[in-house]
Specification:
The complex is a heterodimer of chains A (about 475) and B (about 280). Chain A has about 475 residues and is of the alpha+beta class. Chain A has helices spanning about 1-5, 10-15, 20-40, 45-55, 55-65, 75-105, 130-140, 170-190, 355-360, 405-420, 450-470, and strands spanning about 125, 145-155, 155-165, 195-200, 205-210, 215-230, 240-250, 250-260, 265, 270-290, 295-305, 310, 315-325, 335-340, 345-350, 380-400, 425-435, 440-445. Chain A folds into 4 domains: about 1-100; about 120-165 and about 425-470, 2-Layer Sandwich (TATA-Binding Protein); about 190-280 and about 395-415, no CATH class; about 280-390, no CATH class. Chain A contains 11 helices and 18 strands. In chain A, strands 4, 5, 6, 7, 8, 9, 10, 11 and 16 form a 9-stranded antiparallel β-sheet that branches. In chain A, a hairpin with a 2-residue loop joins strand 7 (about 240-250) and strand 8 (about 250-260). Chain A is elongated, with a radius of gyration of 40 Å. The two termini of chain A are about 55 Å apart. Chain B has about 280 residues and is mainly alpha-helical. Chain B has 2 domains: about 1-125; about 130-280, no CATH class. The two termini of chain B are about 20 Å apart. The chains are: A alpha+beta (about 475), B mainly alpha (about 280). At the A-B interface, helix 3, strand 7, strand 10 and helix 10 of A face helix 7 and helix 8 of B.
Chain lengths: ~475, ~280
């Protein structure tokens, strides 16, 4: 088939893709290209944007034009991998007929070619006559080889033992496995998705964000995070992240499970992974209110956001309007207080948990605004003791229908490597001919690879056969 | 910790073995070679013991895990696999000259682990991502791959030295190095074993990544560099098995391959990525 194809007009393309030079070229180019992606930070990493900002406009244009910020998903990188796959297919198809012929080829047991230039140590003498010796040999080698052919012409007996014939296909198995892995990868990228979602403790979600997609994806079921816990070792390193999740369909709870790192949960074809966690302020704040009427008095109050509380001394009402775990990203935990006095206007101001540190870190003028003055409403001063915080768990949610195919490919690849590297197609010829006293036995071997291993086996076979025939008595 | 004390002494044992192998080659007396082998075997025995002690000690601390979890432990294990693999090759080939080229690598790994101020030898508890049954398989396969490629690197260096040898030169050192064909064959075997192990390492890594990070392949710098290494050795195997290249070209490619291994192992620590627990 290869011959007929190479004669047609497509032979230039065929010859191009059937060359191992192309394979070597593609492997080297892919290796060099992959290096680029490890040196240039790739999206969606934050470093990628920083790196891009540091480039000159021209260079930036060039880099984004050839997709260097997400190069492993770029068209040209995929084309390179596609070329490698095509190269691998064509190479295998081109060589397969020859392998098939070698696989089918059955040399006769009485071939003389293997015995040409036979080293003298592969020949020895035995006492018995040719017939007897041949019978003994037949009985003996049966224990070592399953595939044996026998022939005798005149006073000569021939044996041909064969093993590892199928190992000739090892390379094709490896090539096939690479293709299977690539197919699995393609299936994942076409029919799978890669999503994420944060769930606050006690809340539930029914949709997730998916990378490279603008609209959230409806799950068709609900996931609630009942509880999230994080444990630490004595040295401060994290020990365990645990999300207690419940899965329900149309409000009916179906499953309750603990999600841990390295122990994903599967539900309705989607896999959930523990990926990150964080804290968000809850609805409650702990406040300390100090006031001077007659004496210096203070009270601790736990206030819930959006609810009115009477001011101590009954001068009016106050309410927590907003809670921020880190106001403006640098001012730390803060709560916005609104005071509605019995008569007069509403007063609003922020109270900060870390007021003392803020005073040392920011210029005085910045903190003089009445909005930042916790004593704006005389005679009260508010202190923020703490925010109630809630954990949220960061989940990764994936669907990848190609994974099992990838694993099959991996299995085949390892099997293929064992066959290719450690097995060979070996043939051993044993010739028994008559000598002055008894008979002469010669052993020759041939192999498609690993000549050292073949020599070792021939030497071994010669030794054990010699021992068997000459020390039997 | 008794294990780290034993391990720091083993650094000197391996250095001694390296010196003895070198002496054997320079002076040409077989007795040094025998001593070197003896020293390496003794070192490996103590090394094995120290790793087991470390393993047990981690359980006594209540944070028990296989000692493969940080840079210190990985270097110790790398040196162990390298020495073990070398001794197997020495025993199979009945030739000791390779020792002068491989034992320095084992010694350097031990010295780096034991004496670098940036590497902590303390037994640290496992972070959640590392708590997996795949840790042991992944690390063992990867490090046997690294070790096989390390031996292949040593063989390639020997190949280039042997090229300097000719009939006019009467150098014991060069004379003792096996014939180029022998080196080339052995190099091929090491690359094949390394390639198989690297593939297994990448596969076990992907299975693990799939359960820990939700994807079997994510172009993390360490993953990518392992693939680059894989490409380079795939090129070595193809050029040899199909194009019939041998000798100098294969030796050059094996040396390049080992540099890729080193980047996969160490260089990647300077690039951002998910494998950062291997940095200290």
């Amino acid at each position: 088939m290869a011959n007929s194809t190479s004669k047609t007009k497509s032979n230039a393309v065929w010859r191009f893709f059937s060359s191992v030079k192309l394979t070597l070229f593609l492997l080297i180019v892919l290796a060099i290209a992959s290096i680029l992606g490890t040196v240039i930070p790739q999206l969606p990493q934050r470093e990628s944007l920083e790196f891009a900002r540091g480039l000159s406009p021209g260079l930036f244009k060039l880099f984004s034009f050839i997709n260097l910020f997400d190069m492993y998903h770029s068209l040209w990188f995929r084309v390179l991998i596609g070329c490698l796959a095509l190269n691998l297919i064509i190479c295998s198809m081109d060589r397969f007929p020859a392998t098939w012929r070698q696989f089918r080829f059955r040399p006769g047991p009485d071939r003389s070619k293997p015995f040409e230039n036979l080293p003298s140590n592969q020949t020895f003498l035995a006492d018995g006559n040719v017939e007897d010796t041949a019978t003994h040999i037949a009985r003996f080698i049966k224990n070592y080889y399953r595939k044996i052919q026998r022939k005798h012409t005149g006073d000569r007996h021939y044996f041909l033992c064969e093993k590892g014939r199928y190992s000739r296909f090892g390379v094709y198995l490896v090539h096939l496995s690479v293709l299977i892995i690539l197919i699995g990868g393609l299936m994942g990228s076409f029919f799978g998705f890669d999503g994420y979602i944060n769930i606050v403790e006690g809340e539930q979600i029914d949709a997730i964000e998916v990378r490279r997609r603008t609209t959230p994806l409806k799950l068709g079921f609900e996931v609630r995070c009942d509880k999230f816990t994080v444990n630490f070792y004595e040295n401060g390193a994290p020990k365990e992240f645990r999300s207690e999740l419940s899965f329900s369909v149309n409000g009916k709870e179906m499953e309750k499970k603990n999600l841990l790192v390295n122990h994903p949960i599967k539900f309705k074809g989607m896999t959930f992974y523990q990926s990150s966690y964080g804290k968000i302020p809850g609805n409650k704040v702990r406040l300390k209110i100090v006031w001077h009427t007659n004496a210096h008095e203070s009270v601790d109050i736990e206030a819930e956001k959006g609810k009115s509380f009477p001011l101590p001394g009954d001068e009016g009402q106050f309410e927590v309007l907003k809670v921020d775990a880190n106001l403006r990203g640098m001012m730390g935990p803060a709560a916005l207080i609104s005071i509605l006095p019995a008569k007069g206007e509403e007063t609003r101001f922020w109270v900060f948990q870390n007021w003392d540190t803020l005073q040392t870190r920011f210029p005085k003028q910045m903190l003089q605004s009445p909005m930042l003055n916790a004593s704006s409403f005389k005679p009260y001063t508010f202190y923020l003791q703490g925010l109630e915080s809630k954990f949220y768990t960061g989940l990764q949610v994936n669907k990848d229908p190609g994974v099992s195919i990838v694993w099959i490919g991996c299995f085949l690849m390892i099997g293929g490597f064992f066959v290719t590297f450690f097995m060979s197609h070996r043939r051993f010829w044993v010739r028994v001919s008559s000598a002055k006293q008894g008979s002469t036995i010669s052993i020759a071997g041939m192999s498609n690879k690993n000549p050292v291993g073949l020599q070792r086996e021939v030497a071994h076979l010669t030794t054990i056969l010699n021992d068997y025939l000459n020390k039997r008595k | 910790m008794i294990n780290t004390i034993i391990l720091s002494y083993i650094t000197f044992v391996y250095f001694g073995a390296f010196m003895l192998y070198l002496l054997m080659m320079v002076i040409g007396k077989a007795i040094f070679g025998r001593l070197a082998s003896l020293m390496s075997v003794a070192g490996l025995g103590a090394h094995t013991l120290a790793i087991i002690i470390r393993w047990v000690e981690s359980y006594q601390l209540g944070i028990g895990h296989a000692p493969f979890s940080n840079l210190y432990e990985s270097l110790i294990f790398f040196s162990w696999t390298l020495t073990l693999l070398y001794l197997i090759v020495e025993w199979r080939t009945k030739n000791r000259t390779l020792g002068a080229f491989v034992m320095p690598l084992a010694f350097l790994a031990m010295a780096y682990a034991s004496f670098s101020p940036n590497i902590t030898s303390r037994i640290q508890p496992l972070i959640p991502a590392l708590k997996s049954n795949w840790l042991i398989t992944h690390v063992i396969t990867c490090f046997f791959a690294y070790a096989a490629f390390g031996v292949s690197f040593g063989l390639s260096l020997m190949y280039f030295l042997k090229r300097l040898d000719n009939d006019h030169k009467n150098s014991t050192f060069l004379n003792l190095i096996p014939q180029k064909g022998v080196l080339d064959d052995l190099n091929y075997q090491m690359v094949a074993i390394g390639f198989l192990m690297l593939t297994l390492g990448i596969i076990t890594g992907s299975v693990w990544a799939y359960s820990a990070w939700g994807r079997y392949w994510g172009w993390d710098p360490k993953e990518t560099w392992s693939l680059i290494t894989w490409f380079v050795y795939a090129a070595v195997l193809h050029s040899r098995m199909v194009r019939g290249w041998t000798g100098k070209r294969i030796a050059i490619m094996s040396i390049i391959g080992f540099f890729c291994v080193l980047i996969t192992y160490f260089g990647v620590n300077y690039l951002a990525g998910l494998h950062s627990y291997a940095t200290s």
